[in-house]
Automatic annotation (TrEMBL):
Ribonucleoprotein among keywords: yes
Biological-process GO terms, alphabetical: translation
Annotated protein name in UniProt: Small ribosomal subunit protein uS10
Species, as recorded: Thermogladius calderae (strain DSM 22663 / VKM B-2946 / 1633)
Chain's gene name: rps10
Domain of life, source organism: Archaea
Subunit structure: Part of the 30S ribosomal subunit.
Keyword Ribosomal protein: yes
Length: 98
């Protein structure tokens, strides 16, 4: 089995990309498990809003969400060649373990 871990900050692009991987696996007829959604990681930063004057301190909150998907595909040479040719968008990170 090949373990494919895909993550991105843009959930729409992530779902589209995992859909393309699923289509490749279904066309070749190999065994597929997933995409399994993993918990979303939230990174948040609070910064002091300037200028805040003489009164109350005001803060801005910035948040970035990292969405993850996990796929298991049966190891097949045809599928691996198609996955290598697949164009990965710049906002997606992918990890493949054999």
């Amino acid at each position: 089995m090949v373990k494919i871990k895909v993550w991105s900050t843009n959930v729409d692009v992530l779902n589209d990309f995992t859909g393309r991987i699923v289509d490749i696996a279904k066309k070749t007829g190999v065994k597929l498990s997933g995409p399994i959604p993993l918990p979303t990681k939230r990174l948040s930063i609070r910064t002091l809003k300037l200028p805040h004057g003489e009164g109350k301190k005001k803060y801005e909150k910035w948040e970035m969400r990292i969405h993850k998907r996990l796929l298991y595909i049966a190891a097949d040479e045809r599928v691996m060649k198609q996955l290598i040719r697949l164009r990965v968008p710049p906002e997606i990170w992918m990890e493949i373990e054999l």
